[in-house]
Amino acid sequence: MKKIVLITGATSGIGKATARLLAQSGYRLILTGRREDRLQQMKEEMESLGAECRTLCYDVRSYEACSKALESLPEDWQAIDVLLNNAGKAKGFDPIQEGQLTHWEEMIDTNLKGLLYMTRLISPGMVERHSGHIVNIASTAGKEVYPNGNVYCATKFGVDALTQAMRIDLFKHNIRVSQVAPGHVEETEFAEVRFDGDKERAKIYQDFNPLTSRDVAETILFIITRPPHVNIQDVLMMGTQQASSNFIDRSGRQWVD
Ligand code: NDP
Ligand code: 8X3
Question: pTM here?
Answer without folding.
Answer: 0.98
